[in-house]
Amino acid sequence: MVAWPDPREQTPRAPSRLRAALTDAFATTLECLPALMLAWLCLRVAESWHAALAGLRMSVLFGPALANDLLALARHGFVFLAGGLVLALMPSRRWRVLTLGVLWSLLLVVEAGLVACHWSAGTPLGADLFGYSRAEIATTLGGRTVPAVLGAGLAAALAVLWTLLLASLRAWWPRASLRSAAVLLACSVVAWFVVPEHFAPPAVDSEAGVDFLRNKMAYFVDRSAAHVLGEGAARTGVKADAGLPWGGKDARHPFLHVDRTPDTLGPLFDVKPGAPPNLVFIVVEGLGRDFSGPRARLGSFTPFLDQLAKRSLYFENFLSGQGRTFGVLSTLFASMPFGENGMEALGSRIPRHQSLLGILKGQGYRLNYYSGSKLEFDNQGLFLRGEGVDTLVSEQDYGPPHERSNYWGYADRDLVENTLQREAADSRAPRLSIIQTTSMHDPFTFPGQARYLEQVDRRLAELGIAKDSNPAYGAQTQIFASILYTDDALRAYFEQASKLPGYANTIFIVTGDHRLPELPMDTRIERYHVPLIVYSPLLKKPAAIKAVSSQFDVAPSLLAFLGHGYRLRVPQDAAWLGARPVPVLPGREPRGRPGGRAGAGRRPGGADCMARRGAAPRRRGAGLHGRPGQRRRRALPAGRGRLCR
Fold it and tell me: How many domains does the chain have?
């Protein structure tokens, strides 16, 4: 008689074991998902607290912010559920829950880091990360501290996560089935293709509000995926047409065109043929129009520059070509396009090009660059050496009595003193000098900071502004103090520069690399709206110029001026993006030029910043040539009274 084995004692077959493992893995992930959602809520509350202190209306924004978080979960939920496949390898439910706890804790830490980057940069972090080297990322993050409210929010999030995960091990915790997990997985995949990335109700009336609503992790993932797949360029690309300054007929040199930039600066200066002027460019870190100059939205915290502007050509509606420092040199001195990830990001692969620096170097100009920061950051040193700059001064060229003010290097007053000392010792002419400041940059620390913190209240009183009229005046006092400090350093520079040899034959150009991002913006254009001050003893009379122009127009306009007035050799063909040869008549505003930079204030992946709400506008004009008193057809956005290297 044959004894048949009891089916209950048989070892389950492999397919059955696999099915059971997958069921447990998907079910555990779905069952524990509420713990992650509530932990994420803690971070959103901390973010909301910070935004409320900056003046954003949480009564309007908090609900939509939570809705955007749920929207992000719906679009990316399949990642969490599919990731649960790893849990199938775990021997028990306890191990599966502990594994989820570790992975989700890391996720919350990354989310907190992205929130901190948003607070610091003023725009959510996207594909920017791919455009920086490890050393540059270390420099940018070095010395930073986690804000107290964010640290508390992260601690609360981790506590909530682990408390609920441990509770999920109890028998009373609701259980999920494989079928419900499969249905949600399918719905999430559909949502990825159908549901929009985010939404903003009509009541959200500022860029700062829109950026607050975004789920920072979802935004980073979406932008990074677009960058890796090459979708960013396709989404923001501009097709060449007759409105652009190049014909595009030669595929090898698509930007090349005959340069017909007129000399519109010459009539404003007392030109002395045979003695080309010295040029001094002062690139001020973070200098924006909404806190500098007449009708500044936040009031002007640059009293010296305001005085200097009254003795200068002052361009009220001037635009930078980038939202971060990395592009200012190639834009200002070479009028170069942005490229895929920023022209200077190409490093040694930057294509051969013409520039103001190279052209003047070939005609006897001595080139000097002064900074108190790291020369190699953003490949600036590589770019400047390629242009033939003779003197490069950076943080390694300072010594006692100067002391580092923070991880970026030396403060602006030290920079001014070092520059004046070197310029006095080398009076060879003609020369072109570049002075690049850094003190108006996070962490906004500099010598004598306490004195300038006190000056913020005095400046508000001088402007007739109540400190409680805007939360930023109290919450961002350090930033306003740094603006006053840099303005004071520039005052000291000009006072001493007037005693240097060749001062009477020098033209000073002062502009911002971009508007500092830490003060929240009403509109995206504020990130690029910077002043331009052209001061010189050669100037016949001061003038306020209202025509819209940009940093792309500086190099071709100055070369037209030097070529016409001083007979310097100027290339007949050029690849400038700026200074279109369209005459500007009094009372007539230049027509708009499409496509500015696709770099969106973001280093890589041209879609990250400007492209979200449109690139910084470009205007079809003849460069720096607007006539005094010219009317504007369309004014730059004035904002609504609120406040992103």
Answer: 2
